[in-house]
Every structure is written in C-alpha cells, then in structure tokens.
Design goal:
This protein is mainly α. Helices cover 52% and strands 10% of the residues. 23% of the residues are buried.
Length: 374
C-alpha cells in the first residue's frame, strides 16, 4: 500500500495518523508499526545498514496482505490461541480477543521492538499500563488486556515455553459500575402510558423484556410454538442465541396480560434499530428524563458526559432491569436460571449497585427499629 496521508490527518507529535481507527488509516498505522519494528531490528543488527536494504524492507512490508509474525513471538502465540478458540467461543468473545491483539500490535510499534513471551515481566506490565493510559484507554480495558497477556503466557507454557507468568501481578482496579435500568416506578409509568399506535409494539416488547430478562436476539424471536404448560403454569422454552443454553422461563402475569392482547401470542417482531429508536421515544413520552452520567464515544474514545436518561435507553435495559429489580426478592440462583448467566459474578454485573427502592426499604427498617426502641 502507498504510504500517503494528507498533512491535516497526520499527528506530528505521535508520528502517525490522527485517527488510527478509521479503516484506511488503521491499515496505514499497522504498516508503520511493522516498519518501526523491522527497521529498528536492522539498525540494531547493523548500524550501517544500506539504504537499499531499508528500501527493500519497506517494499516487502507494504506488499503484505496480512501482518507477518515472527515464530515464537507473543503475537504469533496469540494468533495460534485465537485460531484454537475461533469455534469454541461466542462471536463477541472472539472479537474481543481480536481487539486485544490489535492493542498488542500497537504496543509493539510503540516500543519499536517485537514482544517475546520470555521478556514479559513486571516492568513490561508497568510499561503496558503507562502506554494504555497515554492512549486514553479505560482502566478496565487495560486490566482486561493485561489479564489476557497472562492467558497467552499460560498458553505458551503448555507449549514448553518458560515464562514469568507466576510472578506477574495485575493491579487491582476498582471500577465503579453504572448500570442503567428502569426501576419499578418507571416501568409502571411506561405500562400506564398511552402511546401512538406506531409505538405500541415497541412498548409491549419493552415491557416483555423487563419481565423476562432476555436479550433482544431472544425475546424478539418469542412465538407461540415455544409456549408450554408446566403443572398449570404458562412457560416459554427457547435456546439463547448467544450462549446456546436452553431456558425454560415461567411467564410473569404482566407478560401474560400483554400476550392476551395478541390472542395469547406476541407483538410483531421489530428490527433492532427501529426498536431502539422507538423505546427512546416511549421513555421520553413517559418523562423518564432524570440526569444521568454515561460513557459515550467521542472521537475514538469513550468520555463521561451528562445527559437525560431517555436518550440512552436501548434494548439491553430490559435485561438489566429484570436482574436489578428482582435481585434480593427472588433467590439469585433462580434469577440466574432465568437470565442464563453461568456465574454469580457475571450476573451481578447487571445489578444496579445503587437501588433506590432497597435504600428506602433499609431506611424504613431503621425508622421501625428506632420507634420500637424509643
């Protein structure tokens, strides 16, 4: 590929494209990282390397369709690991692995040298954290990437490569979770809201999602053929698209009430984009406009910004609301069975840590105990 970029798109300080995430410049930046590493290696081997040799290296790297990793290097091992996991993990997990790989490619370019598993030690991890912060990655992203480095080192050990993985310590990062949910009062407000006919299906699906706790890829496929009766209780049986888990879910009376309007069936399925757009309109009509702080993509990084709650409602809010609103009222293992989470730690990521209803209930208990003791 030609090494060309307009002056206005070039970052002179970092010596790379200003936006390394748009498609053409992402590829250009990857080529520049490869050039940094290979030319640095040549100069270390021979400080008097000829211009012709350097020119040949540049031409070879520019002609490569895909990155070429040195055998035994960290990125080579990471590529092997990803190939092994390709059909063993869900698509979203595999894509996250690929993001980690791109991050490590950038880190190699930053260091002007290839990374080998034997050279990864505590100082390497410290440098990696410094690089991540300089690039304005979130602490959680840096932490997950550092943990993935350990995963690859463990993989290297299974291949007989000795590493320092047991001596590595990943800094514990306490990240405050802000889980956006619809609380019970807001859901009641939506249930009572009269909406235009064009929004009725979206409203009913939103209510269904808040009382079933499923992803849009699952609840939007609900249909009468999945219904069954267990000892007189109406249930629905389906296989979660993301996890492949079979879930048998008793239907909440609120869901049955919605279904009754459709002849014991479900609303018409909606395109996810249309559904997300319409539930924002519904939340706006229901005056769900509390100020919230959210992390929003600005440029190519997430930044915290204040906005009104209705503007940030999306299809996943029903799943989070279900987990959060029923947590503490229904045994957690039963809720996990409904949502399909494998571990309690994963399930708790869906819980709003500050549940106003539970705070008020605790305050009521304080008042009651104080009154009894007075």
């Amino acid at each position: 590929m030609p090494l060309f970029i307009s002056g206005g798109d070039w970052d002179s300080e970092k010596q790379r494209p200003l936006n390394i995430y748009c498609k053409p410049y992402k590829k250009l930046n990857a080529v520049l990282n490869s050039l940094k590493i290979r030319i640095s290696e040549l100069l270390r081997e021979n400080p008097h390397v000829s211009v012709k040799t350097i020119s040949t290296v540049i031409k070879n790297i520019c002609s490569e369709e895909h990155p070429v990793y040195t055998t035994g290097s960290f990125l080579s091992l990471m590529g092997e690991y990803l190939e092994q996991k390709k059909n063993a993990v869900c698509l979203s997990t595999y894509r996250r692995y690929q993001v980690f790989m791109r991050l490590m490619e950038k880190f190699e370019g930053f260091r002007y040298q290839r990374i080998f598993p034997e050279g990864i030690d505590r100082s390497f991890i410290a440098d990696f954290y410094a690089f991540g912060r300089q690039e304005e990655y979130t602490e959680s992203t840096i932490n997950r990437s550092a943990e993935f480095i350990k995963t690859i080192l463990n993989f290297a050990e299974t291949k007989g490569i000795r590493t320092n993985v047991r001596q590595l310590e990943i800094p514990k990062c306490k990240v405050s979770r802000k889980v956006m949910i619809l609380d019970e009062k807001e859901i009641v407000r939506i249930k009572k809201l009269k909406v235009p006919k064009s929004l009725q299906h979206a409203k009913d699906w939103l209510i269904i999602s808040c009382y079933t706790g499923q992803r849009i890829s699952d609840f939007m496929r609900f249909n009468p053929s999945q219904l069954l009766n267990i000892e007189g209780r109406p249930c629905i049986s389906f296989v979660q698209q993301k996890t492949g888990k079979e879930v048998v879910l008793p239907l909440h009376p609120v869901v049955l009430k919605v279904m009754a309007r459709y002849g014991n069936s479900f609303p018409k399925p909606l395109n996810p984009g249309i559904y997300n757009e319409q539930i924002k309109k519904i939340a706006a009509l229901a005056k769900i406009n509390d100020k919230v702080t959210i992390r929003k993509r600005m440029g190519f990084r997430g930044k915290e910004t204040d906005t009104e709650k209705w503007q940030n409602i999306s299809s996943h809010i029903g799943r989070r609301s279900f987990a959060s609103n029923f947590y503490g009222k229904i045994p957690t293992p039963l809720l996990m069975q409904a949502t399909g989470h494998s571990t309690e730690q994963m399930f708790l990521n869906y819980i709003n840590p500050v549940n106003h209803a539970r705070v008020i209930n605790l305050g009521n208990y304080f008042d009651k105990i104080y009154a009894e003791g007075a």
